[in-house]
Amino acid sequence: MVELLRHFHERLRHVETELLRMDRIAGGLFVRSLDALHQSDLAFAVIDGDEEVDAFGIVIEGQILELFALETPVAGDLRVLTTMLHLAPPLERVGDIATNIARIAWLTRALARDGAVLAHVDEMGSLALGLLEAATAAFVREIWDWRIASRPWTSQSTGSTEA
């Protein structure tokens, strides 16, 4: 029983890590899409990168559903899995938005740029990126709070003092 629980938590941590990688990639694409508005030759790297974000979303969703089906999580584990299941689609959407910005940058590359408009877009992009970072930080805090709260239960039930 203890070994099954340990294996479940290893798989859960793997999904958490993959979701955070997806977040970094999607956020990076978003930043590069804003850069592409100033330097349109960056657009294709953003467009190509969206496929990686989409692939992460599919894999993560599959892993979460598998954990739901095979492990029957409860309490904190259930909350973490449900949260992760709801975080992957918005991260995919960040990649889609980055792709749309990059396409606009490429399609309008021959047009004159208005510095004031670009400054406003950069400012809006910074605000959006700040919101993404805040959401990620909240998720990471929730994971750590959950792990700290569940640690005494795990060590008492297994007779181990290891984390």
Describe this structure in words.
This protein has helices at 2-36, 43-71, 75-107, 115-158. The protein is elongated and about 65 Å long. 23% of the residues are buried. Helix content is 87%, strand content 0%. The two termini are 17 Å apart. Helix 1 (2-36) packs antiparallel against helix 2 (43-71). With 163 residues, the protein is an all-alpha fold. The protein has one domain (2-158): Methane Monooxygenase Hydroxylase, Chain G, domain 1 (Up-down Bundle). It has four helices and no strands.
What's the short version?
It is built from four helices and no strands.
Protein traits:
single chain; 163 residues; mainly alpha; Methane Monooxygenase Hydroxylase, Chain G, domain 1; 87% helix; elongated
